[in-house]
Amino acid sequence: MSIRTFFAIALVVLSTAAPGPAQAQMYPQQAPPPGYQQTCPPRVTPSAQVLYERYMRRFGSLGLMAGQQQRIQSLIDSFSRVHPAGSPFDPVAMHALHDDVRGVLTPQQLALLEQENHERPTAHRCP
Hints:
The protein is mostly helical. The protein contains six helices and no strands.
């Protein structure tokens, strides 16, 4: 058995073990504060303006040319006509938009974007 496997098994065993009396007293259960939302809000489609701003903020370091920015705006506008702001979130359509927008980038811009993606921390969001 490798050392990694051993530590993985040990971590699972320790994390599923029932807390002892000392641990139970250290971390008492408290009710959430009033107004605390325990579930994620329903996801909705953002407006075309919000989508464009997100892409421009994300692609700001890539040096997009005016024609690329116009093409991205056109793709977002087409998407927003079919999926207006506030409509139920469609992950398949959003993924297709993402792929279309990435198709506007040059190979060098894509490589730089991939490098930046590996360097930036990931955000923890609702599922």
